[in-house]
Amino acid sequence: MFALDAKTMQKIAPVVRRVVIVDHNPAAARLLSDLLKGFGSRDVAIESDEARVIDLAREMEPGLILTERSGPRLDGEALARRIRRSSLSCRRVPIIMVTAEATASSIKGARDSGVHEFLRKPFTSGDLFRRVENLATKPRDWVEAVGYIGPDRRRFNSDDYAGPGKRKADKPASAAEAVVAVKDQAMRILASAMAQFDSDPMQAVRAIKQQAETLKALAIKTGDASLAIAAAGLETLLAAGAPTKATLAGPVGAVLALASPESLSRAG
Hints:
The protein has 268 residues and is an alpha/beta fold. It has helices at residues 6-16, 26-38, 50-60, 76-84, 104-113, 125-137, 175-195, 201-222, 225-239, 245-256, 261-265, and strands at residues 18-22, 43-47, 64-68, 70-71, 74-75, 95-99, 117-120, 142-144, 149-151. It has 2 domains: 6-151, Response regulator (Rossmann fold, 3-Layer(aba) Sandwich); 175-257, no CATH class.
């Protein structure tokens, strides 16, 4: 075990203070627990049954969840999706998926389920620490859509796989391009949420609310008065409560009218 300085411990403290480990193998779970306590964890709970994790997370409100990819009563990808779509106050909690199988398909499955990091067995304390440090010091934008909920997949990174199908970082080259990318993504999610509203109304409303907040903040930052007014109008309707697809159509349409044709053509 390597030594951690006080400054590093302070950075990772909010993430590791309370941790839930989901693993059917007691020895593997104990190893993770011991390593995390060495990183400063104060409260570590271990669970092997996926069905009980939601209640545990609700009670504990962890800063980090580590889950095996699979087990007798565990589907790590399904668990990640359940957490992301839940009403838990910790639904955005960082999740690290742990598995001995590091293939393109398993990494993609983890990424698309809303996992933050991927850790291949066997691993060292340094491997685990790097994942925790990434979570604490390199936060990723949150994506609240209907089909996907979780950290921005464009910045998903796994050093455990270097073969075909590994997704490379897709970072904008400049601040101006970053603004355009954020706006385009929010517009695409907004259009998609309306298109998928009937299949999942609750998540569609949650997605629309997140995009309204994102677009208003972006409009204020860039001085786009038209977008700021349209996004504020959408927020006002949402704040009134019980929005429907019909009542949302006008305010959402006003926002989408300000989108580029290219961004809407990629909505889905």
